[in-house]
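Workshop exercise sheet. Pairs work together: one partner reads the sequence aloud, the other fills in the structure field after running the prediction. Swap roles for the next sheet.
Pair: D.N. / O.F.
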Amino acid sequence: MTLSAGPDDVGKRLDAFLHERIPEFSRSRLQSWIKENRVLVDCMAVRASYLLRGGESVSVSPADLPALKAEPEDLPLAVLYEDKDLIVVDKPAGMVVHAGAGHGRGTLVNALLHHFGKLSSISGDLRPGIVHRLDRDTSGALVVARTDQAHRALAMQFHDRLVEKIYLALAHGRMKQPRGRITSPISRDPVRRTRMTARLNTGRAALTDYAVLEAFAKFSYLEVKIGTGRTHQIRAHLASIGNPIVGDRLYGAPAATPGLPALNRFFLHARRLRFRSPSTDEWISIESPLPGELSAFLDAVRMERG
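Structure field:
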């Protein structure tokens, strides 16, 4: 692949530039490719610490990636519901759902394999049982398939938008309306490749509904329902209307708010999942309580209001 360094890239280290543009590869893997002369700047081999001047052509010849397989790991796991078909877990903020480049251990899948053993195989050895995902710093309810049959049934419900997915979010600013719908398509940000954008009118269709639960002078506490499951959907959609999620620095939120405690994550929580049982076709509704650090922050916001 060939990448072009633009004016905004002047002064960036080569390895940092590559990690921004192709974030699916870990920085350590990119650095190893630089050492192996698989990365050339204007047809010349350089060091990972090379500082871009802007205007360079950076060619990357990736090496074959080693096969990854998730292994059991004794990690804490909060289970909200389980039956013979599936498990619903309460994923904590800070935990990656499955292994990948840069995240070989400490993932939710590692914990699931330790506690439950065999999971569905449809998503492969790297993501056994995983039907859908939550961002690393998003907490809350996540359903996992135990069998291939259950996996197919759940995946079909997600595809057909039959699964009800309700989130709680604290956003900066006051919403213009007590209820609203955001339908802007979502695509990869062409400048900052680690994030998505809903400001280009191109990309995949996305649907986000929100309702204001509490309005504060500087914040809005929201219930959010998504009809689609795009990468960073709620984060990108709220940022696109000028209301980024508290703590979400990637999407423009400030690092801290004077007078309020530090929040070492963003305020987004998967509150409720509702779907049909793969075996009985009966509705299953599972709720995850708001984590303590989010409850404490929300209480601080309420106290500030007086």
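Discussion prompt: The chain has six helices and 15 strands. What would you look at next?
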